[in-house]
Write a structure and sequence with these properties.
The chain is mainly alpha-helical. Helix content is 85%, strand content 0%. The termini are far apart.
Length: 136
């Protein structure tokens, strides 16, 4: 029924497999598996952390790209404005506080700011009057 050679070969193969499994059941095998598991866990954790860092950097780069795009649009509109004669004149007036010959300046003040200044002037006048008493 059974051939002696095949039975013997099957028995040898089972014994070889049991030796391999037996190694992983020994203390040394368990320690080696624990070290292997630890290093794999450490490598996986490192990849996880780098993934989060790179996603944060990507969000930051996208935000900066949007800001730069807005800045580009703003600068383009300012350049277009400076290409006109009126834009150049406006920029000169704003930057150097100059006007055309014959132009005059009118200053309009609020009543509230005038009353504040008057009260400060009055308090200074009182203080000078008091200090003048000591000087005499």
């Amino acid at each position: 029924m059974y051939n002696k050679g095949t039975v013997f070969q099957n028995a040898m193969e089972i014994r070889r497999k049991s030796k391999k499994v037996g190694f992983f059941r020994s203390r040394l095998g368990i320690i080696l598996l624990a070290f292997l598991f630890f290093f794999l866990l450490k490598a996986t954790w490192g990849v996880f952390i780098k993934s989060h860092e790179s996603s944060d950097k990507l969000k930051e780069a996208e935000r900066e790209a949007v800001e730069l795009s807005l800045r580009k649009n703003t600068l383009a509109s300012e350049v277009a404005k400076l290409k006109t004669k009126r834009g150049v004149e406006e920029e000169l007036r704003k930057t150097f506080q100059v006007g055309k010959p014959g132009e005059e300046l009118a200053i309009i003040l609020d009543r509230s700011s005038l009353s504040e200044e008057n009260s400060e002037v009055k308090s200074m006048a009182r203080w000078r009057w008091i200090t003048n008493l000591w000087r005499r």
